[in-house]
Amino acid sequence: MDYGLLTFASTYGAIYAQKLLEPVTAVRVMPVLREISLGCGMALRFPPEDLEGVRQALAGSELKPGDYAFYAISGSGSALRAEPL
Amino acid sequence: MSQIIDARGKACPTPVLMAKGAIAQGAQAFTILVDNTTAVENLKRLAGNQGFAAAVREEEGGTFALDFTRGEGCVSCEEAVNSPLPPPGADWAVFVGRDIIGEGDRELGTNLMRMFFYTLTQSEDKPGAVLFMNAGVRLPTLDEQVAEHLKALSDAGVEIQVCGTCLNFYGLTEQLKVGMVSNMYDIVTRMQKAAKVISL
Questions:
Q1: pTM score
Q2: Which of A4, A16, A57, B157 is the most exposed place for a label (fewest CB within 10 A)?
Q3: With an 8 Å Cβ cutoff, are A29 and B114 in contact?
Q4: Contact at 8 Å (CB) between B55 and B27?
Q5: Quick check: A41 pLDDT over 90?
């Protein structure tokens, strides 16, 4: 995994999680990868080593498990792989 | 003895205009005095564009003296000064005059701007230049995520030009993280050279 990616059911959820995670990890906002969804969406990218901290922060938040999804991203271009976690 | 132009105490773009005036009058060598580093950078770029060499001397009291000397045997310099602008090139430029994308919610607009620059870093077709003015200068200074993306673009050869007047107005000159302090002349020239300019 090159980086972890979080996608959200709503943009509100993404902005809420961004604020929540800023003290936890070097979170970066990016568009949802086309490989995951063709819809327009906001995703959060974070370093792979912070996965557990991100999971814990979200578990104790207002967001429900169905409001977000984790992906492990590796490679780029045509070799890009996005696997649900 | 060569001409001395005193542009101390003059704000951007006056020192550049004064130097341009001397060049237009056919000066082959002159010295221009300024008192800020933005003017020094702008004048160095002017020298490069106009076929002059500019040696910078730092003097007492925060004064910088730039010795302009016309490059020897430079046939194309006259052409560069007098010829019309080159036809638009093949590349494109992005003009950023604000710190959010679109009207509406600031938080959403801030994140859309970050996503825009992230997407540019991932794209094969990168712009030749990104030009920042007015509140747009908050991005290469205050927004760490956008600054990070701009560094990646700069490393890939994209010119990042940031309006010096605007940085000064917002008190952000010292906080510029990426790109060069630029002026209206260079920004307009860069727009004219681009095949298309996308404004955000």
A1: 0.70
A2: B157
A3: yes
A4: no
A5: no
Q: Does A28 touch chain B (CB under 8 A)?
A: yes
Does any CB of chain B come closer than 8 Å to the CB of residue A18?
Answer: yes
User: Any CB–CB contact under 8 A between B107 and chain A?
Assistant: yes
d(CA B28, CA B52): 9
pLDDT tens-digit map of B1-50: 578 999 999 887 889 889 988 998 888 999 999 998 888 988 988 888 88
Model confidence at A82, pLDDT cuts 50, 70, 90, reads very high
Q: Which of B166, B156, B25, B43 is nearest to B95 (CA)?
A: B166
The verdict on a CB contact (< 8 Å) between B119 and A18 is: no
What rounded mean pLDDT belongs to chain B? 89
Q: Does A74 touch chain B (CB under 8 A)?
A: no
Q: Which of A28, A34, A35 should we substitute to test contact with B (largest number of B Cβ atoms within 10 Å)?
A: A28
Q: Strands across the sheet with A28-31, in order?
A: A28-31, A42-46, A3-8, A68-74, A81-84
- Given B115, B145, B148, which is nearest A42 (Cβ)? B115
Contact B126, B153 (CB under 8 A): yes
Cis peptide before B13 (omega within 30 of 0): yes
Say what the ipTM of the complex is.
Answer: 0.80
pLDDT at B45: 86
Residue of B nearest to A13 (CA): B108
Q: List residues bridging with B54 in a β-sheet.
A: B68
B45/A59: higher pLDDT? A59
Instruction: Tell me how far apart the alpha carbons of residues A73 and A54 are, in angstroms, rounded to a whole number.
Output: 16
Give the number of beta-carbon pairs within 8 Å between A and B: 25
